TrEMBL record:
Its cofactor is Mg(2+). This is Inositol-1-monophosphatase. The keyword Hydrolase applies. It comes from Cylindrobasidium torrendii FP15055 ss-10. It holds the Pfam family Inositol_P.
Length: 337
């Protein structure tokens, strides 16, 4: 049993290490004006790793190992470089880290780049810290402790402002009555670029067109969302949904390190995350289970308040999940075994 005081200690330690990693990345961007960025391809030409990814992961790993030697650690770069491809999360206290989420963005100096550090207990993301070093004056920090006495916050460095509680509007408004109509929808194109009628890329493009099309269009699948956004960072997508700056995140193909920290923040702000494919055999009125963190398919809905019809947040969120499932094709991202 981890106490709230222990979680606060872990949270503060994580914020500190995320900021130090962010300083390294900011300096790295300055250095690259004179030195070429060491960039290599992993699975294909859009799956990139830079020297900064490996350096930052080592920095975070070493700090965690020194302070919490009994904890387990899963990091994107060490996992990608290793042979073991099973989902490694157990119920023991475990850190799940993406040193740079949005590596392609960083290579192009697009600011949706984040250091993403999650900490799980009993396989539940419990502390989440996301530092976006190129957003705001000297970076923006999002963090949460998922606990009844916890909280979720945003701090902009380089301004003297206090840390802001999340979601940004509190209490968050109900979901739009006709949602997904009126929602802001975040979806990622991802790295699977294979070309066939049944490929994930083809299905994702169909899904996005369905969500954008007027109601009644595309055989009843039109969703008339207010807009579609694709940021190139699943971490930042999740954080914006948690902050209430978007309503729906639909992403498949990413990994536990891309979402773990963001899920802790989302849960603390009242959001939910489920499988982006409807689970087999789920009855139309059965409660929808939380996504498997290692399942590579995520559909997140922001927190909301009871609406004028008296529907609880959970009822509105589950209704919207089913409306999204109805309009989207199942994606095929199995975990390598
Ligand atoms: C990627 C980003 C992207 C998502 C990919 C991820 P990375 O993470 O989160 O939005 O579509 O699936 O792999 O490689 O930049 O850490």
């Amino acid at each position: 049993m981890t106490t709230i005081d222990e979680l606060r200690t872990i949270h503060d330690f994580t914020c500190d290490i995320a900021r130090k990693s962010g300083e390294y990345l900011r300096n790295d961007q300055i250095r690259r004006r004179s030195v070429a960025l060491g960039t290599r391809e992993k699975l294909n030409a859009v799956d990139l790793v830079t020297d900064a990814d490996t350096t930052v992961e080592k920095l975070i790993h070493d700090a965690v190992a020194q302070r919490f030697p009994e904890h387990d650690f899963i990091g994107e770069e060490s996992y990608s470089a290793g042979e073991e491809k099973r989902f490694l999360l157990k119920d023991s206290p475990t850190w799940i880290v993406d040193p740079i989420d949005g590596t392609v963005n960083m290579v192009h100096m697009f600011p949706m780049t984040a250091i993403s550090i999650g900490f799980c207990i009993n396989s539940i993301p419990t502390v989440g810290v996301v530092f976006a070093p190129f957003l705001g004056g000297q970076g923006t920090l999002y963090s949460a402790i998922y606990h009844p006495e916890g909280g979720a916050w945003m701090s902009e460095f380089g301004s003297d402002g206090p840390r802001t509680p999340l979601p940004l509007v509190s209490p968050p408004p109900p979901l739009p009555t006709d949602a997904p109509k009126g929602c802001l929808f975040f979806g990622e194109w991802g790295k699977d670029r294979r070309d066939s009628p049944q490929s994930n890329l083809t299905k994702k493009s169909t899904n996005f067109i369905n969500m954008a099309t007027e109601l009644g269009g595309r055989g009843g699948k039109g969703g008339m969302v207010h807009g579609l956004r694709s940021l190139g960072s699943s971490t930042m997508d999740m954080v914006y949904i948690a902050s209430g700056q978007g309503d729906i995140m639909f992403e498949a193909g990413c990994w536990e390190w891309d979402v773990c920290a963001g899920i802790a923040i989302l849960l603390q702000t009242g959001g939910i995350v489920v499988d982006s494919n409807p689970p087999d055999g789920l009855a139309p009125d059965a409660p929808i289970p939380m996504a498997n963190i290692g399942g590579r398919r995520y559909l997140a809905i922001r927190g909301c308040s009871t609406n004028e019809q008296g529907q609880s947040p959970r009822v509105q969120q589950e209704r919207l999940v089913r409306e999204v499932w109805r309009r989207t094709e199942r994606l095929n991202y199995e975990r390598p075994i």
